[in-house]
Give the backbone structure.
Amino acid sequence: MEKKIEEILASFAVKGTPVEAKPYGSGHINDTYRVTTEEPDGTRHLYTLQRINHAVFRKPQQVMDNIERTLAHLGSKAAQYPDVKVLSLVHTREQRNCMRTFSGKWWRLYDFIDGVESYDNVRDPDIAFEAARGFAQFQNMMADLPAPRLYETIPYFHHTPMRYATLEEAAYQDIRNRADEVAEELEFVRQRRHLVAHLLNRYLRGQIPERITHNDTKINNALFDPTTKRCVAVVDLDTVMPGLALYDFGDLCRTTCSTADESEPDPDNVHFDISMFEAVTAGYLDTARFLVPAEIQELAFSAWLLPFMVGIRFLTDYLQGDTYFKTHYPKQNVDRCHTQFRLVQCMEDAREEMQAVVQRCARAVGR
Ligand code: ADP
Ligand code: GN1
Ligand code: MG
């Protein structure tokens, strides 16, 4: 095991001695390791060790304070939700919820949730239904979190007009001389700029309420029981903060309704699977009984908005030199941008069918 990891683990109150630490998962932001420890009698324990990316989360202590409040609140409802596995933080030997190294890196430790599965890409409508149910249940459970308001761990995270402005600024600055190369992609965004403030305007007019939302509902942040195929846990809680329920719904559609991986190099392989959209919508409406009519009205729009916004973010990162999202090859952010924009186009072609799906699913639950 790396000496550095061993030293970090020494700060946490783990059971036994660390024997292995393996990089884990396919998240784009934090560094995640699955850690195994062993007690003298041979009993083994599993943990999830994470370095919090402090270039993305500028105030890691606020992230951890939000997470601690979130977990305590979810934990207080355990009896009501016996199927839900709530993440459990392992504190440091000094009773803190994370630690900072001398070099300024932030680390935290969770119990590893074992015997579950996560998927980067799904094609099974039952899984899509379950994921939507799981994230809706998360929103439901968080709805009565006592004051104060959670910290905004990334300010303006889903503020589409700000994302658009940042893209234009990145294209203007063009520090890596890449703007000419992505001229078509920039044009794609500009043609749709009149839509960037739509949800935000409805929120500002008081038509759509603020809620406590997850804000990163990509499908691999849900964990499933491999036998029952139920969604048993929701992870990646760094962005749990005030937001719109529609952003969570849209982000889940973005990652479940595409027929290809987020980094698929050939956009022709990216299609929008309307049966998956139907499954996500049915699962979400089945559990998110708190939604007001305006939110239901905008479900299809939010499914379009999130791939558009995330595509903008991948494009911006490419222009800025690939510093935000982890990349594994030179133009991965361009490939990612293409999959998102291709999905946007497919959804534009399927707009009326999507609205019909929402109406059908809403009627099925008496809305
Ligand atoms: P990132 O912010 O980089 O996406 P995540 O917190 O999502 O990091 O962790 C990466 C992946 O590791 C997740 O998608 C999930 O599959 C897995 N994971 C995270 N925490 C746990 C845990 N406590 N138990 C089991 N798997 C986990
Ligand atoms: C990041 O951390 P991860 O991989 O679950 C990002 C999301 C993007 C997503 C795109 C904090 O999610 O906002 O939608 O990549 N998380 C953050 O795949 O920026
Ligand atoms: Mg994640």
